[in-house]
Design goal:
The protein is mostly helical. The chain has 4 helices and no strands. It has one domain.
Length: about 120
């Protein structure tokens, strides 16, 4: 009798990708919007670049690229630092929607480290 296996998904990592992509779009808008008071400032550029870095790292985790357990753990820790750092910087810039996006990314990170299956299993 053949055994049916369920597909392994990385739901938490995909939530990180979605939230950071939305965060990057919001940050890009904040960089060029002259009416918000933070346009073209170092902080606005910082949260834009950090959102893109979290997006890239989340994609690496979500696509199950060939990484050792140690590298996946290191990447997860770096993503956590990126999410928290971006959220704090967005808080100081009063970019509340970006703070919420990083909160959603943090929920995705928690799902990833507690529930998501390892690609090595």
């Amino acid at each position: 009798m053949s055994e049916i296996s369920e597909p392994k998904t990385a739901g938490g990592a995909w939530l990180i990708v979605a939230a950071s992509a939305i965060g990057a779009l919001i940050a890009a808008f904040n960089v060029v919007n002259l009416g918000n008071g933070i346009a073209f400032t170092f902080g606005a550029w910082l949260v834009f670049v950090s959102s893109l870095l979290v997006l890239g790292a989340g994609l690496i985790l979500a696509l199950h690229l060939a990484l050792s357990r140690g590298m996946r753990g290191l990447l997860a820790v770096l993503i956590l630092l990126g999410i928290v750092g971006t959220g704090v910087a967005a808080y100081f810039l009063l970019a509340w929607i970006l703070v919420v996006a990083m909160g959603v990314a943090l929920v995705g990170w928690l799902i990833h480290v507690t529930v998501d299956p390892s690609p090595l299993d």
